[in-house]
Amino acid sequence: MDDSLHYLIMANQMLVQKALLYKLKDTGLTIGQPKILDYLSRHNGSNQKEIAKACFLEAGSLTTILNKMEEKGLIRRQILNGNRRSFHIFMTEEGKKKQQLVSEAFSEIERKAVEGISKEEMEGFLSVYQKIYANLLDEAGSSSINKKTDQ
User: Fold this and answer.
1) pLDDT digit string (tens) for 50-76?
2) Among residues 39, 42, 38, 44, which one has the least CA distance to residue 88?
3) CATH annotation of 5-113
């Protein structure tokens, strides 16, 4: 195993994603859908730009995922304030049921991930990890994903 920071971040993300998809394999959810449901659970009614930015998705990729979610009855799109160019996305009752399963899966994965780690170690880790996130967010400020979703 490589001990470099970039490798550990990438490897942990892949392990979380694989564990999540395994736990949700019987739900019919596909890659990208759990994080959108998770985001909507806290920001129901967000527009597509907000969702794309928060979930680090390109606008085109988000549209494809949302189309599939709408076909499955997980979300509905609604025009607010008469702006036909901006849809707001709301979870349906079916979407809320699936989101509950997503939330439970995330909780199980997080519990497993922090086994044997003290509260103090976790607080220190999260503090450092948030600083890394902020540093990388600053660095990504000029990346194509932020440019495309901010327009």
Assistant:
1) 999 999 999 999 999 999 999 999 999
2) 44
3) 1.10.10.10
